[in-house]
Design brief:
Layout lengths: L44 E3 L4 E3 L2 E8 L2 E6 L1 E4 L4 E6 L6 E2 L21
Antiparallel strand pairs: 1-6, 2-3, 3-4, 3-7, 5-6
C-alpha cells in the first residue's frame, strides 16, 4: 500500500509492503530511500475550486448545449490546486470556473465572454 499523501515536512510518504524476512534482518520502522518509476498515465484534472459539495456529494458544473449542467464526480485530492477526476465527466467537457462560480445553478444559460 502506498499512501497518496506526501508529508511536506519530511518530504516522505508511508509505504507498507510484505517482504520475506525469515532471519529478521529487517526491523520494523526502518526508513529506506526508494526511487519508483511508475508507468505514466493520463489523468483528468480540474482546478480544486471548480468542485462543489462535500464528502461523497461532489459535483462540477459543465457546459452542455449552452446550459450549465451539474455533474456528480468522484475525485482524488492532489497536493496542489488541482484534483483528479476519477469518474463523472469526460476530458472533452467544458468545466465552468471563475469568480462567480457560486452563482451558477443547474440549467442556467451560459454565455462566454472575456474576463473583466
Amino acid at each position: 500500500m502506498i499512501n497518496d499523501r506526501l508529508d511536506l515536512q519530511t518530504r516522505s510518504i508511508d509505504v507498507r509492503l510484505g517482504i520475506q524476512n525469515a532471519d529478521y534482518a529487517i526491523k520494523p520502522g526502518l526508513f529506506i530511500e526508494v526511487e519508483l518509476y511508475p508507468e505514466p498515465r493520463a489523468a483528468l484534472t480540474v482546478p480544486r475550486h471548480t468542485v462543489r459539495g462535500l464528502g461523497g456529494d461532489r459535483y462540477v458544473f459543465v457546459v452542455e448545449k449552452g446550459l450549465a449542467k451539474r455533474r456528480s464526480v468522484e475525485i482524488r485530492e492532489l497536493e496542489n490546486d488541482q484534483v483528479e477526476v476519477l469518474s463523472g465527466i469526460e476530458d472533452s467537457v467544458l468545466v465552468i470556473q471563475g469568480s462567480k462560480l457560486n452563482l451558477i445553478q443547474d440549467n442556467v444559460r451560459v454565455t462566454f465572454g472575456t474576463p473583466s
